[in-house]
Structures are given as C-alpha cells and as structure tokens.
C-alpha cells in the first residue's frame, strides 16, 4: 500500500502529461441475456489527439516520422501508408441472435470477415490500389485471409456504410470500399496480434480477461478494429472484442449464475497503468431477482458500474440469482420489433430462389434499407422480384435505389433497396437466382462444401429522419450455396479421351489413304467332270 | 440351282494402279505431305510451348567481373620550415608503404609535399607535421607531432589506418555492419518489462530527443543513407528467460550473462518489426526492467557485473538497459541514452573509428576522413556485391533450363550493368557519385535476382508437359513412322528387283 500510493499519484501526474497527446480508455460491458447467456463487450479506445488522416495528395512525398506512445504503431503505419480516413475490420464467428441477445454493443456482427474503409481520393495511387495494399497489410497484421477480398468481392455500398466519424473537409472526395469474406474463421492466431496492439496487452487491466481458451469456446465471438477521424478531437482507434458466453453450459448445476472467474477463468488483478479510464458496466436485468457482486461503485441507467482504474485486490464481478435452483429456458421466444429471415431454396444446380421474410411487430410503419452485396456466384433475376405482404402482392413496398449487375469472374452485384413494412405485418420478398458455372481453377479446396454468401444488411430508417441517433445495421445470417462442382480429375480424363479419339480418326484416315490394296486373283475352280 | 451354283467366269482383275491413290507415287506424296505438315507445325509447337528466355548480356557481365572500383586518394604532406627535410623523406616513405595496402583495398594512392598547392576535398587530404605530442584531425587535415625517433613510422601507421580503416577491423566488427541500403527505418522502442509493477517509464520525449541528438548525424550521413524514424512505447515486454540473481555491493540485483544477451530480444512478445515497407530496420531499444528484476546489470564471462549498460546485436540494432527511470523521460534525461544509441548507430552503419591516439577537433560525431573512408568502402562493397549478384543470375539461368527470363529481368540486368559502368566512370572524379551509381546497381541487380517471374515454371517441368501430350503424340506418330519404314523397305525392294534383271542380262 505504501508503495502503491505514491505510484498512483505519480501515474496521475504522468497521465496529465501523456493525455495531452494520446489517451487510452478501456471498458467492458457485461449483460445477461434472456437465454441465460452473458454478452461481454470489450472496447479499448485510443485517441490520438490533434492528428489528422494523411492527405492522399501528399502520399508521394516523404511522411513525417511517426512517434506513438499508446496508439498501435503497426496499425498507424498501415493507416498512414495508405492515407485511410476511416477503417472498420470485423472478424466474427457464429450467428448473432438478435431475438435473444438484443442489439449488440458493437454493431458489426456479420459472420466472417468484413472490411470497409473510407479514403480520400486524388492520390497518385488510386483508391483501388490503396484498398489492395490495405487488405494485404491487414491480412499480414491479423493473420487473416482478408487479402483475398479482391475485386470479385469489393463493392461501394455508400448508402448502408456511412462514415461513423467525420471526413476531413477538403477539396478531395472520399470513396468507400467494402468487402466481406463470410467463410473466414476467427481463432487464436487472430487474437494474438490483436492483443499486441493494446498498450497493456493481455497482462493488466480489463484485457486480462481476454482468455482465448474461454473466448473461442463461446456461443458467439468476434473482434473488431475501428478507426475513425473525429473533427476537432483526432484519430480514434477502437479495438473491440465481443463474445456471448454461456454460463449454463459451463456450470454443473444448470444455473445461470456467473462471475468473471467462471466466464473467463481469470479475474482482474492489476490495473493498466496507462489507462485514463477503465470501467466495467454490468447491465442489471429489469426483471429483478439478480444480485450483483461485489457492490458496485455506482448505478445508473440500469447498469452497475465498477472502476478498475485502481486495483487493490483482485476484482471478480459476478451475478447471482439466489432464488433460482435451475435456469428455465423460456418457451415462448422473445420477439424483437423486426425479425428477418433469409433463405436460399431450390436444389437445382442451375436455378434457385432467394427469399427474405421480414416481420414488423411494431404498431407503426417501418422503412428499412436493404443491401445485398453478392459475389457473382449467385446472379439475381431482378425482374422476378415479388413482394407479398400478408398474402397480398404488394410490389409498391419495395423501391430499388441502385443495382449493379455482376460481371462473371470479375465483379460482384450490388443491390440497394428501400423496403416499407406496414405495421404488424409480414413481408416476403422472393427473387429468382441462377448459379453460374465456375472455371476449373476457381473452385476452392474442399469445393464440395459449397460457397458461403455474405449476409444481407438492413438498416431500419428511423421514423423521424432528423433523429440524431445513428442508424444501426442489422445483419442476416450467411447463406451457403452449392454450385456445380466438377470431378477434379476431369482435365486429364478429357485430355486422354480426346487424344484417343483424335488418334483413332487420324489412324483410320491415314491408313485408308496410304494402304496398298492388292487384288488377289482367285483361280477359278476346276470344272466338275461329268 | 445347279446352274446358279456353277462358278461364274472370273471377271478380269481390276487394274488397281489406275485408281489414283493406289499409284506408288501418289501414296508417297500423301505420306510426304503428312510429314510436311508435321514438320511445318514443329516450330509453331516449339514456339507456343517454349519458355520465354531472353538472352542476358553475359559477356558484359564477364568483362565487368574483372574490374574493380579504384578511388584516387591524395595526401599532401606539409610542415614548417625546419621540418622540410622530414617532410621530404616522409613523403617517399609514405608512398612506398601505403601504396600497396591502398592498392589492395581499391585506392590509388599518391602523396605530395609542399605548401598549400591543393585544397583539401573528398579524396585529397593534408598531413601537417607539427611540434606536438598528440594527433588531431580537423576536417580533412591531420595534425601530427614528429618529435620521437619512431615518429615517422607512427605517421605512416596513422595515415594508413585513417585512409583504409577496415583493414584493421576484426571479423566480428565487420559482422556488426548492416547490409547497405539507401534507406533505413530506425525504430526506437521504449520497452517496460512490466509497467504495472511500478518503476516504469511511461512516456518519453523521443521526437525532440531524436531531433536534438541525432539530426546532425542524419544530415552528415545523407550522402549514404536516408532515414525514416518511428517510435513506440510498450508497457509489457517480458523477457523470454529469467535473469540471473546476483549481489552487487550487498544489494540484490539481476544480471544478463553473455549468453542471455544473444537471446535477449523476445520476438514472440515484443512487436518491434515494422512490416509496412521493405527497407531494413535498425532497432534501438531502451529496456526498463521490472521492479523484480531491477537493477539489471550486464555480466562479463566471469559473472561479474560490468559498468556497461548497453550492447549491440549485430545487424539488428542496439539495446540499452535503464534501471529505475523517472516515469517521464525528458530530453535532457535522454541525453545519455541517445548518445549510446548514436554510438550504436554509427557502429551498425560501419562508420570507422579514428585510430587510437588520434582526436577529433570537430563538433560533429565523425570527421570527413571517416566519412570519406566509409563512402569509398560502401561504394566498393556495393560494386562487388552487385557484380556477384549479376554473375549469379547468369550462372543460375544457365543451370536451370526451365527458368524463364522475362523482359523485366533482362532490363534490370542491363540497367544494373549500365549503372556499374557509370560508377566506374564516376569514381576518379567523385566517390559519392560512384556510391550512388553502385547503390543503384545493387538495387537493380537484387530486384532482377528476386524477380518472381523467374520461379514460375520451376514447378511445372517439361516432363509434365510431355506426359500430358504423350497419348496424342505417341498414337499419331506410330502410323506415320510405320508408313515411312514400310515405304523405304518397299522402295529398296523395288530397286533391287530392278537391278537384278539388269545384272542377269549382263551375265548372259
């Protein structure tokens, strides 16, 4: 204690110096869900004060030297080398259950890898070249195969992916590049480089809880890197990790009680010395009956808040339901205001049908934008788009904003539309699709598994268009499409077969032309003696 | 029925030779035309399946291999009136002793005497004999005393060492020097072993410190290299081993044995590498041990703590251990650290030391003599390396017949040869220019050597190709060859048959 007191004073003093340039804060939100699971959302935010994204026009010139204290150098270099204004990378595994888990703290929950970036134009290198460099650099940094987010998966859906920060006001326009790779799996090899970007790694502070053994055993897990520019403040990088852990599954007695030790197998023993704020917020379920331990520092807006800036003894936050002997799963599924289901039907190797069913439980009309960024592996027949609302054809409910048809082997299709959902109704969209034939070399290893298709993204537009609250994206689960796969020994069979045929024909013709025919005169039979 | 069964009178045999394709001549023509097409198609087949191998300027590379860069160096001996005699004798001695050493190291050495006939500049130096004990270097002048009897030899030694310093370098000293690159990234890292255990340096004024302590050196070295600077701070940078517990003056301390130093860098936990460019990185690490391991000393081979707190990892960078730092390092507190980093940087870049007993009177970190020597040395190394690379490319292309040589490789090789020629041309007038040209040649030749296009067909050998085509070629070739053989046999038989009646007729 004697040693920690001057140390903490010292730290306060130091952080008044360091916060003039860079500041770091960490936050963990734990919220118990209706199905007994617990959502843990980690957010590690570093703000580089006063910094501006690099001017793309200055890319050809020599850059200033880069000095970082808290901001991750490896990421900073990538951002500056490609003059990226805003960047979002998410790597998720699992299917986010909006019904049971509610709307996530981090909204990018699409399965697989998703990368989108806003960058200024007007550089010597075009936005596409820098997008390519960015992909490859991030692929190297995070050990993920996002390098393969090539032109065949890159679109620019500016309607849905609006910048979360500000774009620097300058004469240059900004361009969006977006790509998803639904088949990407997130695992320990991605988490390790992620942790290395944190000032305190996983050794002190809230990040201690990021235990890969537990996180990758969760029902859902995903990580994200979000960089944005805030006018007047600076460049902010937010490293986020989100997991849905299942204490009922872990516990032997089928209770939903949890604590940090039971969820993460760790507790916070030391504080991160450079964090300017470090807090844990636990959402207290409104239904009651739950006891939060230890007693929180403060309570507000349904959250129990703990400060872990100064840790004297290990902190182990938990929640108990003392009156429950066993967790009972609720039988009637909770209903959120908007439910979305998307399916691909048809067992044909050529034709199929895409259908999206949206249920609006709200007592008022809801408008939502609808985005499909589909690789050319599935091609839409837009003329066959039908909208049925509660059994009645209502083609007026959909208005196509833009549609970019796919170019086979080159470009994905992009469909942006706005749907109107009447109050308390179910709207079904159907559209015929065709599955193209792939070239022999375009098939991935394990081709029989099929292709993962990216999720569709819906953004419910607020009732009042002027609403300051940002619009939130809703991701549908991914789809799997089965394309016609050849027998991969086929090319050799074809070679052998056609060679044999050619040789046969050639031999026949050649022989006919060059063979010497000889007439064999048969001696007439001797006349019979009569 | 009997009538019908009776054999018909034999029809006269068809005259087959009247059917056009049954005449021997036509048949031979048909076979010949098949072969004609096959032979016509051969070049096309060859052309479409052959690997693109452009010819490399081998003879030029071979001619260049014999050549070496040779920079002219002139030393002017001067002295006061009473030392003129010394000057005269020494001048001959200098030429006699230094020329062979200089020759072997790519210098063409000349010595002169007399008053200021030449202005000292790159490649031209003054040695001033004075009445003094020590030796002092200023600019490109060496002031040296000539009092002792053995002084003459001392002058010669000093001038030799200062002109060709790498002659007296040991192998381990040579190994420290990084490979030449026109641009380096200098990565300064402040690593706290464990910041949450207390006693940590949480921030540092690195930008100002680099500007204050290193900027002059960067400017002086700009002839040779450009530098990109980056820095970072890490708060948890654990060691991969446990330092040895020792006692220093009855206090508990920890020590790093010489073996520990070789594994000091914990690449698994420290993210030091910058991956954003291909420029080589030199790391400068200020390491703050955790409170458990503090103070941390570097031990000698006997296990005794040394006074040194820094060490150089050859070709990687420098490390400095800082025990119990303040939590914020200001520019003045970083003075000692950056002087060490400065020394380490010069060592890694190969800036030679002045010979023992010679002092510099300049404010800068190193004198023009040292810089010139380094420029000459680097130019020569680059020239030799680039030559070697070019010859290896030629050799490799000869050895591996499946290796394609594209236009870019050919162009790079030619440009590298041009740059080498330019370096040879520039070296008598300016070793700096020669260095630039040779650096260009080095970049171009290594780019040609690592051209990814050269690897393309290594994994698809010609045998594979033949195996794919064999089912077609074999089955088509068989009747073609059989037809020729048959025709040749038939022709020889016919000729023999034609000759035999003649011979018989003559015998009669």
List the helices and strands and how they pair.
The complex is a heterodimer of chains A (530) and B (508).
Chain A: H1 4-18, E1 22-32, E2 38-49, E3 66-67, H2 73-81, E4 84-93, H3 98-101, E5 112-120, H4 127-142, E6 154-155, E7 174-181, H5 188-196, H6 212-215, E8 220-230, E9 234-245, H7 247-250, E10 258-259, H8 260-264, E11 277-283, E12 291-293, E13 298-300, E14 303-307, E15 318-320, E16 338-345, E17 351-360, E18 366-374, E19 379-389, E20 392-393, E21 398-404, E22 413-421, E23 425-434, E24 451-453, E25 457-461, E26 474-475, E27 479-481, H9 490-514
Helix pairs in contact in A: 2-4
Chain B: H1 2-5, H2 24-49, H3 58-65, E1 71-79, H4 84-104, E2 107-113, E3 124-130, E4 135-138, E5 141-145, H5 151-163, H6 171-176, E6 183-192, E7 203-204, H7 206-213, H8 215-220, E8 226-234, E9 244-248, E10 251-256, H9 258-262, E11 281-288, E12 296-298, E13 310-313, E14 317-321, E15 328-329, H10 335-349, E16 358-360, H11 368-399, H12 407-426, H13 431-449, H14 462-507
Helix pairs in contact in B: 2-14, 3-11, 4-5, 11-12, 11-13, 12-13
């Amino acid at each position: 204690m004697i040693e920690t007191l001057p140390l903490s004073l010292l730290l306060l003093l130091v952080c008044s110096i360091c916060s003039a340039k860079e500041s770091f804060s960490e936050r963990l939100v734990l919220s118990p869900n209706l199905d007994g699971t617990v959502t843990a959302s980690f957010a590690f935010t570093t703000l580089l004060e006063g910094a501006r994204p690099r001017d793309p026009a200055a890319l050809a010139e020599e850059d200033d030297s880069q000095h970082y204290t808290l901001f991750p150098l490896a990421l900073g270099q990538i951002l500056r080398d490609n003059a990226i204004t805003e960047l979002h990378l998410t790597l998720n595994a699992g299917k986010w259950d909006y019904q049971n888990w509610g709307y996530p703290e981090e909204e990018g929950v699409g399965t697989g890898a998703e990368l989108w970036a806003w960058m200024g134009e007007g550089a010597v290198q075009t936005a596409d070249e820098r997008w390519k460099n960015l992909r490859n650099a991030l692929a190297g940094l995070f050990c993920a195969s996002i390098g393969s987010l090539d032109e065949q998966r890159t679109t620019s859906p500016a309607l849905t992916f609006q910048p979360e920060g500000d774009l620097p006001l300058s004469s240059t326009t900004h361009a969006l590049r977006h790509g998803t790779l639904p088949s990407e799996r997130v695992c320990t090899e991605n988490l390790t480089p992620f942790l290395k970007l944190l000032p305190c790694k996983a050794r002190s502070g809230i990040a201690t809880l990021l235990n890969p053994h537990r996180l990758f055993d969760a029902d859902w897990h995903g990580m994200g890197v979000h960089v944005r520019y805030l006018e007047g403040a600076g460049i902010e990088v937010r490293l986020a990790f989100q997991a849905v852990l299942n204490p009922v599954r872990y516990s032997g007695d089928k209770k939903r009680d949890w604590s940090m030790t039971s969820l993460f197998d760790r507790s916070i023993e030391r504080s991160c010395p450079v964090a300017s704020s470090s807090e844990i917020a636990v959402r207290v379920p409104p239904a009651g009956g739950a006891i939060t331990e230890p007693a929180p520092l403060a309570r507000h807006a349904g959250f129990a808040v703990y400060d872990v800036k100064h840790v004297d003894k290990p902190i182990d936050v938990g929640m108990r339901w003392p009156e429950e002997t066993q967790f009972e799963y609720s039988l009637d599924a909770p209903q959120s205001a908007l439910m979305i289901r998307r399916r691909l039907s048809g067992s044909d190797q050529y034709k199929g049908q895409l259908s999206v069913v949206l249920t609006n439980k709200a007592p008022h009309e809801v408008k939502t934008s609808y985005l499909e960024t589909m690789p050319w592996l599935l091609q839409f027949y837009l003329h066959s788009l039908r909208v049925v609302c509660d059994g009645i054809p209502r083609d007026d409910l959909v208005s196509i904003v833009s549609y970019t048809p796919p170019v086979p082997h080159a470009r994905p299709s992009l469909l942006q539309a706005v749907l109107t959902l009447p109050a308390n109704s179910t709207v079904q969209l159907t559209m015929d699709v065709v599955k193209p034939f792939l070239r022999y070399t375009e098939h991935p290893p394990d081709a029989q598994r099929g292709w993962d298709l990216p999720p569709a993204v819906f953004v419910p537009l607020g009732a009042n268009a002027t609403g300051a609250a940002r619009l939130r994206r809703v991701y549908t689960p991914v789809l799997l499409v089965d394309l016609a796969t050849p027998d991969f020994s086929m090319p050799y069979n074809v070679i052998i077969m056609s060679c044999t045929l050619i040789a046969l024909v050639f031999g026949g013709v050649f022989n006919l032309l060059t063979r010497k025919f000889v007439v064999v005169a048969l001696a007439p039979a001797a006349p019979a003696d009569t | 029925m009997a009538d019908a069964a009776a054999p018909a009178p034999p029809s006269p045999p068809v005259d087959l030779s009247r059917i056009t394709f049954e005449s021997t001549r036509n048949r031979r023509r048909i076979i010949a035309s098949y072969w004609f097409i096959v032979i016509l198609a051969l070049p096309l087949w060859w052309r479409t399946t052959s690997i693109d191998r452009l010819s490399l300027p081998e003879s030029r590379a071979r001619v260049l291999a014999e050549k070496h860069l040779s920079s002219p160096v002139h030393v002017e001996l001067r002295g006061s009136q009473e030392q003129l005699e010394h000057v005269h004798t020494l001048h001959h001695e200098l030429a006699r002793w230094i020329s062979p050493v200089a020759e072997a190291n790519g210098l063409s050495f000349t010595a002169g005497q007399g008053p200021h006939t030449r202005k000292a500049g790159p490649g031209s130096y003054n040695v001033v004999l004075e009445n003094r004990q020590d030796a002092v270097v200023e600019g490109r002048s060496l002031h040296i005393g000539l009092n002792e009897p053995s002084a003459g030899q001392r002058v010669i030694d000093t001038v030799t060492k200062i002109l060709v310093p790498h002659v007296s370098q040991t192998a381990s000293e040579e190994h420290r020097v990084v490979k030449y690159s026109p641009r380096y990234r200098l990565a300064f890292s402040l690593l706290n072993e464990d910041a949450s255990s207390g006693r940590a340096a949480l921030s540092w004024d690195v930008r100002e410190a680099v500007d204050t302590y290193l900027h002059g050196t960067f400017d002086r070295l700009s002839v040779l290299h450009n530098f990109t600077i980056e820095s970072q701070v890490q708060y948890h940078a654990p060691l991969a081993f446990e330092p040895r517990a020792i006692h220093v003056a009855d206090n508990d301390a920890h020590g790093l044995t010489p073996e520990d130093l070789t594994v000091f860098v914990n690449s698994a936990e420290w993210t030091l590498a910058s991956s954003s460019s291909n420029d080589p990185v030199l790391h400068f690490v200020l390491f703050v041990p955790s409170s458990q391991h503090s103070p941390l000393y570097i031990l000698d081979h006997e296990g005794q703590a040394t006074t040194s707190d820094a060490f150089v990892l050859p070709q990687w960078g420098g490390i400095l251990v800082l025990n119990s730092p303040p939590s914020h390092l200001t520019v003045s507190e970083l003075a000692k650290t950056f002087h060490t980093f400065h020394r380490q940087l010069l060592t890694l870049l190969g800036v030679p030391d002045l010979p023992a007993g010679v002092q510099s009177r300049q404010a800068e970190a190193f004198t023009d003599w040292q810089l010139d020597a380094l420029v000459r040395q680097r130019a020569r190394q680059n020239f030799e390396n680039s030559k070697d690379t070019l010859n290896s490319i030629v050799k490799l292309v000869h050895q591996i017949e499946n290796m394609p040589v594209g236009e870019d490789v050919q162009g790079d090789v030619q440009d590298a040869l041009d740059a080498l020629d330019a370096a040879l041309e520039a070296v008598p007038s300016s070793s700096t220019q020669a260095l630039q040209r040779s650096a260009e040649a080095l970049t171009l030749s290594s780019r040609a050597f690592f051209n990814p296009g050269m690897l393309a067909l290594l994994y698809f050998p010609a045998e594979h190709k033949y195996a794919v085509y064999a089912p077609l070629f074999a089955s088509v070739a068989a009747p073609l060859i059989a037809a020729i053989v048959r025709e040749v046999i038939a022709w020889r038989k016919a000729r023999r048959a034609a000759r035999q009646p003649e011979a018989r007729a003559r015998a009669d």
